Input
Amino acid sequence: MTDAVPFSLPRFDLADYVRRSLDEDLGEAGDVTSRATIGADVRFTASMNCREPIVVAGIEIAIAFFQTLDPAVIVRRRVRDGEAVAAGTELLELEGDARAMLAAERSALNTLQHLSGIATLTRRYVEAIAGTGAILLDTRKTIPGLRVLEKYAARMGGAENHRMRMDDGLLIKDNHVAVAGGVGAAVRAAKAADSGLKVQVEVDRIDQIDEALAAGADRLLLDNMTPAELREAVARVAGRVPTEASGGVRLDTIRAIATSGVTFVSVGRITQSAPAVDIGFDYERK
Output
């Protein structure tokens, strides 16, 4: 019995993720401590609560850990992903096999705490640029193997996803420019490749903008520019293509960057540096 909802993401196998995580934690012999201290027929009621204000992400994934080890577990979900909740809010109540719940607890909490941490930090960045018209983007600065989940968490926090992979967006960075022989040469080569993808190119100087646009760039990434330089760059572009500010963006600087008039602001910190939030799991014998 559960009030959980189906959870699926493109290119993400939930059952495989849960199984690999549990295998990593349980090892070959399983939870030897629980088997030694708790009877096989003992049932628990458990309450999962947040100990600080958070934006929830990963609640259905957390539930999947418990359901994998105890398919008959009773789940009462109190919140949904993307919901901002106060400290002390009950996120889940579960009733089931005590050994199974204890075995699933750490993997479920690790995932939920990490993803909710990303969503919570992302929401702070979104709120910091509210009213500017700029859109927050994430980046590919994610833990290998967890990108789909981390970018999902960023969406739950209110960001939009940038490239998910290297094959779903053509982004010419500084090293491509250096090897190709300049911004214009790199853009012309990318356009000639006729990949069917829009061509975005990184520029870190105002004088590169006209060259990039003349070569056919569809979008500009304005890298490590000051707010004053960004305003000048936006004026030079004059709405011809979308613009994205990137590079070293922090919570205390993002609003000044967003008010420059750029279309997007991308922030690696929301996935790369988000701390896990504090969520507890407390048991009561029933």
